[in-house]
Specification:
This protein has eight helices and 13 strands. The chain is α+β, with helices and mostly antiparallel strands and 254 residues long. Mean pLDDT is 87; it is low at 54-60.
Length: 254
């Protein structure tokens, strides 16, 4: 894979590591397209919101979590989960274009955005497969086929409203996938166990999430899900400006 770099030993030791792969050329069309979608009237934006789980399981009570979702700090439908942060979220999976088409949504002016999202998700999946191959070689695990089979990889674009320096804009949490690939951002604000991480110019950061801890605990005792929060650093020149970022949740089929 062109430009791929990953220290599997460091990741297995620390449950986090730097990750390089070719993706930065896709960030501007993705963020520009996201902004264009957020500039649409609210009734059009609502056509991009889906709850796939509820479509499949009508009795399930949860909040829409596919496509475009606007969070306003409201309570979570799951009483065990904290209230949402204030942010706009675009959850892109391979099924989103099909959901839009089945609903009859006119996507014409947003096709370049969807194309860039598809390319970026594919680049992340290719990087994840290379990661899995390196880990399997060291641990005798079978991550590669589990990630290859999965259709649940999810790219999340976020736009946080302007906030003052030192403000927590994303509460402490652990993700529910196997790995989180933190790709791009307007400015660094993601703190993993207190460490401020930065992603730019094909240089990403990957950390273990709850499913990796669950499935690899026997093989990798240090496979700890990494708690993280999003906070505007003190003295940041980006304080009081919107913040865009892009992450991908890699979820194995196992």
């Amino acid at each position: 894979m062109e430009g791929f770099q990953f220290d599997a030993d460091a990741f297995l030791r620390d449950s986090k590591a730097r990750l390089k792969f070719r993706y930065s050329h896709l960030i501007k069309p993705v963020f520009d397209g996201f902004d264009a979608l957020l500039a649409e009237p609210e009734d059009y934006q609502a056509l991009w919101t889906f709850d796939v789980d509820q479509m499949e399981f009508p009795a399930r009570k949860a909040d829409p979590d596919d496509g475009l979702v606007i969070r306003r700090g409201e309570k979570n439908a799951d009483p065990l989960m904290p209230a949402y942060d204030v942010k706009a979220v675009m959850q892109y999976t391979e099924r989103v274009p099909y959901l839009l088409e089945s609903r009859g949504v006119d996507m014409t002016r947003h096709l370049p955005f969807l194309e860039a999202c598809a390319e970026l998700l594919h680049a992340n999946k290719t990087a994840a497969l290379a990661m899995a191959k390196a880990i399997d070689a060291r641990k005798g695990s079978r991550l590669f086929p589990a990630i290859l089979r999965s259709t649940e990889h999810r790219m999340r674009l976020l736009c946080y409203p302007p906030q003052a320096e030192g403000t927590v804009i994303g509460k402490k949490h652990k993700d529910r996938c196997d790995w989180t690939i933190h790709m791009a951002e307007d400015f660094p604000a993601c703190h993993v166990k207190g460490e401020l991480i930065e992603a730019k110019d094909d240089d990403a950061f990957v950390f273990a999430s709850s499913r990796f801890e669950q499935h690899m605990g026997g093989l990798v005792p240090t496979a700890e899900a990494q708690e993280h929060e999003i906070k505007v650093p003190p003295g940041s020149p980006w304080a009081n400006r919107p913040r865009h970022c892009a992450v991908t949740f890699i979820r194995s089929d196992r």
